[in-house]
Amino acid sequence: MTAQAPQVSIFHQQAATASESVEYVVTLPTFRRPDHLVKTLKTVISQDPGASVAIIVMENDADGLAGAHAAREFFLLHKINALVVIAHDRGNCHAYNAGWTAAMATYPQMKALAVIDDDEIASPSWLENLVLIQKRTGADIVGGPQLPDFEDRGRAELKRHPVFMPHYDTSGPVPILYSSGNVLITAPVLAKMPVPYLDPVFNFTGGGDSDFYRRCRAEGFCFAWANEAWVTETVPARRTEQSWIRARSLRTGALSAQLAHRARPGLAGRFRTILHSLLLLAASPFRGIRLWRKTGVASTALFHFYVAVGRLMAEFGVINEQYRNPEKN
User: Fold this and answer.
1) Is the bond leading into 166 cis (omega within 30 degrees of zero)?
2) For the chain, is the Cβ count within 10 Å smaller at the N or the C terminus?
3) pTM of the prediction?
4) Has residue 301 got a pLDDT over 50?
């Protein structure tokens, strides 16, 4: 893993109760979405998991600080344990690491921390349901659905596209998770896993969360899914265009190949990964037709093809920045 000293500073801190009383911490990374951040905070502050909660906002725009200012103004109007930290190094992994490290240092009795993004809205019992499934299953890490809320109301059929669909639809134990946008991570996981938790090499490509979960599984930690612990994710119209969906699908494939190389290093592992990519490409027309029939959305027919192509592009070093980071387009 890439070792970097985090550049983090405290922008605002307040306490409604002793830090030792806090059992759950909600961490919320933000980057240039101050208005939506406040919308998110309004749904987070109303959560009641039956224990004391603190909120940590991680500002990742050290130059503008719009999110930090918005969070501080919001927190000053409420009696709550809250912390706003600035992750001076740009990148989503740096932001997550800043918040998770601050949670462990600031709230010593924390049982678990939850993560929600600044373009999401929490359902009324979001945190309660994450905690409920964690206690029921004994899982170390619990994920929940991120349901798309399209700004372009005419694209509702894309809810059935794999790019926007949750990975699971039933509560209970699952093999692994893939996203950090809606998750509960217990304190023993953070106590055991090395810092930085998310490898900064994934800062601008995505995949840091998937890599983290893969390493957690290797350490023996287990996972569960809380289907009732949903959040909605605001999806701009740009992300419903076919060019963005294609880029996201290619990126999914590229990250899949990169994580496979990490899991199976060496020449033999690389040969196995390339072979797997070729087999996926060969099967993609048949898988695409089945997916089209299942969802009724014609554009899904190309999803498996793009994933396979993305894997091969990454194998041979031709994946470019457009496909590595479609959110910037």
Assistant:
1) no
2) C
3) 0.92
4) yes
Residue-by-residue DSSP string for 248-304: HHHHHHHHHHHHHHHHS-SHHHHHHHHHHHHHHHHHHHHHHHHHHHHH--GGGGGHH
pLDDT digits (tens, 9 = 90+) for 117-129: 999 999 999 999 9
Query: Which domains occur in the chain, in start order?
Result: 8-238 (3.90.550.10), 241-328 (no CATH)
Q: What is the distance between the alpha carbons of residues 55 and 113, in angstroms, rounded to a whole number?
A: 9
3-state secondary structure at position 87? strand
Look at residue 325 and tell me whether its pLDDT is greater than 50: no
Enumerate the H helices of the chain as residue ranges: 34-44, 66-76, 92-106, 126-137, 187-192, 208-218, 242-263, 267-295, 303-315, 321-324
Average pLDDT over residues 231-253: 94
The span from the CA of 193 to the CA of 182, in Å, is 19
Pairing state of beta strands 172-174 and 120-122? unpaired
User: CB within 8 A of 17, min separation 6: which ones?
Assistant: 52, 81
The model's pLDDT over 150-162, given as tens digits with 9 standing for 90+, comes to 999 999 999 999 9
Rounded-to-integer distance, Cα 161 and Cα 258, Å: 23
- What is the overall mean pLDDT for the chain? 92
Is 80 exceeded by the pLDDT of residue 328? Answer: no
- Say if CB 95 and CB 28 are below 8 A apart: no
